[in-house]
Amino acid sequence: MKRQQRIFCYLMVAPALLFTIVLGIYPMLASLQMSFLEFDLIRVREHGTPFVGLRNYITVMQDERFVQTVINTVLFTAIAVSTVVAMGLLFSQLLSANFRGRTFVRMLVCVPWFVPPVVAAAIWMWLLNTDRSPINFLLREWGWIDTNIKFLTDKNTWGPFSIPMLSVAAVRVWNGLPFVVIFLLAGLQSIPRDLYEAAEVDGATLLQKFRYITLPLLRPVLVVLLILLTMTGLGHFEINFIMTGGGPQNLTNIMAVYSYNEAFTFFRFDTGSAASGLILILTGIICVFYIRSQAKAVGP
Amino acid sequence: MPCNTHTCRDGAARRHFKHLGLATGVSAVAIVAAATFSPVPAQAQKIEFWTQHYGDLIAWREVIAGLVEDFEAESGIEVQHEIVNWSQAFNTWLTVAQGGAAPDCADMFWLHSFSGIGGEEFGPRPITEFRDRWPNLEDEFFTGSLQDVNWEGEFYGIPWRVDIRPILYRTDLFAEAGLAAPDTWEDLVTASKALTKRDGNGNVERWGYSFGPGNAGQALVPYYWQAGGDFMTEDGSTATIDNEAMRTALSWMRDMVHEHKVVTPEFMEKGHEPFDEFVAGTVAMIGSVPVAWPARIAREFPELEGKWALAIAPQGPEDRDTYSGAGYFGVLRGSENVEACVQWLEFLSRDDSMQRLSEGTGNVNPKRAVMATDFWGDTEWKQTLTATLENGRTSQHPSPVWNALIAPQPGAVIYDMMYSGIVEQEDLEELLPAAEKNMQAEMDRAN
Amino acid sequence: MTGIADTLSTFVGGRARESGPSSKADMMTKAVVIVVAGLLLIYILLPVFWMLKSSFQTSFDIRQMPPQWIPSSFTLSAYNDAGVLIPIWRYLFNSTLVSLVASVVATAMAATAAYVLSRFRFPGATTILTLILVTQLIPPITRVFPIYSIIQDLHLLNTYTGVIIAYVGFSLPFAVLLLRGYFQSSCPPELAEAAMVDGCGYFSAFWRVVLPVSAPGIAAVGIFTFLNAWNDFLWASLLVSSGEMKTIQVGIGDFASEGGGITYVNAFMAACVLATVPALIMFIFMQRWLVSGLTAGSVKN
Q: Which ipTM score applies to this complex?
């Protein structure tokens, strides 16, 4: 019986495992391997791909632009994740209340999910262009501003922060919000109703209920969500790449964009791989926490 | 939408497609069916031909379909046409040069980079051994275009379109300000100053000038030439950007931005799109526009008819060299149908075929006979384009790293130099020697 | 916007009547929440509105300065042009087929794997789970070339099968995670055990008892994987770059012009609108399942 159970288990897990190894683990190792070789597209036909140890990592780390990129990546992730979770909490609270048209509002909130990121970035670029932005026009008409806001090109910085960074982060939040709302809505449903009812009897305000019931009970879901968002946030690429390409002056450059440019613009697959190897290390650290929290839950 | 040419022609593929249509309901079956709908392996008398698309998508498909049909009737060789869209073109050719799926022959660009990357295994294939099929190439084609199909002594194909970049300006705004068409750098300054418009708060309602298309790296090229500079030595071994010509070009551009304030200081950022601004009337003049733009404005924006014109590139301190680059039809390494491809290329290079390609897309043709026809003389802007050809100089340089050097990205040597010198107004005396050193280091990768 | 405001005020009224003594403080909280949510809704809908609006304008009007918030004239010609300029229906069909199949296959594989990983202890289980989790952390960019060559070696470039394989690969880890949580928390082991007492084998217990009970969770995961595939640009652009096989996201790229920028902006916007509609329709029908299916599956432990 035990043997039969094992065979059953392995058969059930085999297809998923095969796909994971072929399309996940193998490409990751192949890319890591590249980061220890010289892999310069311009030279590769004549010089091959000699092993160079950590040279690519050293080259990348010595590049001032890259160091700034690492800081930006962490900041972007922090800003985007915290904002999107805060907004997600707000909307999931709102949408878990019973009111007419709830389904409709839920659909509206989820609309960004269906706009492909490539398209979304293009439209936002239009909306945020300094001289053409309809938002700037509106704000000027209302007399709220005198000069156009340079959403994507203002080079003034406050510490590591800048307007372009916040603008691009806002678009990333926009893009990620629906997933977070749905995820949290699901989490909210698992909180027993009678807890709230008991609290109401005690005269608790909405805020108190949120603070003392919702947040603590939502904590496990929030932890998983935060880890997931952080991991995908660190490796994010599309929106930064399309909207600013990292500019102005590297203010919105992030590691994945740096890695892409090394490889595809400058034909340096080796330093590109080293840069993404460093993203792997960052996400790896987060992942250790995740796996711990997951592995605890194996089996009955 | 009718199904595309190759699906219709190929009976086997069509049968599979029907099969597929029936099976879509059941996903598991669909996977099996989809597997059978892979491209049919090339047969001896069938060649695969990829192009980008030019002008109107529909018009482009029709032009190629017509040529394919005539060629097939004449030679019995079947041509399977696929369109590579512009948003993927670069990655597609980079993948091809590294051993990715490749057609037999194609419409290509950036020969020097891609053959540098592909080496002798992948990428563009020289057809020097067939060179004598075109005995009068030098006489029939504009010289500039031939630079783009020769590399390290080998001949790679037939140029068929030229990207030549004249000045584009709004005639309505020029007339309003009482200005004549610009001809020299000084004219550009005067006109731009007269045309830049700001509101009371300093918000710009209209910029007088834009250096060139969105690609910031390319913007510098013509001005540097016009100031008398060359980016590298003729053998592609030595960088030459620390000189008087570069100082002249960069300081002129810097003054346009900071002293005259007629060019947006954001011109090097990614969202900068002079085409949109020109159409909206918020940019009055663009110094160097891709050849596709005038045809595109004529086609897509009838509202602007009579409000714009072209002028040949301006006379700089030294000369009038104009940014240009040729796309060409060539053969790919790995093809087993080289002879059939060369026949197709021969067919395409005839006056009549070139004429059809040129008329169908509005693309300037590198063949003198085509540019001498009525089609290229019937409007003023076309005449200007033809005249501009005489000053055309290829933007491709004899180094495979060239396109990395002028990429519109921070980290690219020329982009960084422009950003520091023009936008940040750094001291050129310190900047240029360092930039030249960086550029040399990049170029040495190829040796 | 008034419709939304109405809806929101209904919500205030409805809830305020329910609650008792603390209603004054709650009214304040609710008012703030509603104002903030209203502003955020504008931010959420602005680009969508802009896309929709532009699709009814001419290319010239779209670029007019000052920008037109309300189109000065409506035209449907962009929708017509979009269908003429690119084979948009074929692209939509491709996207639908590829996303549907990928989502069904990925969900099926994830369900079988997640079930045994959540229910049984067997040698290697932890390692397998870790492997699957690790895949989740790989930035997609790093996988581009290895995966391209795998698909090329299988001779599956420009086939539906090629992209489907890629999508299944990318959706699997997340699907496994969600479903594993779901099986753990909302599908009691006693169910399968009872079935086996009744003479079912391992597989038929899973197939006849566990799966039907878990339908909401499976549907939710299916929606996720569908949307992942539907919204993808990167992989499709590499794996199905040519002609009739393009997905809609890649097909939209046909509007890119040789000098950069977009030709026929209005037709482009119309194509974008059409590209969002199928996913939207699917969502409308499935959203009930989405939330209830995730409820338990959102991995609480």
A: 0.87
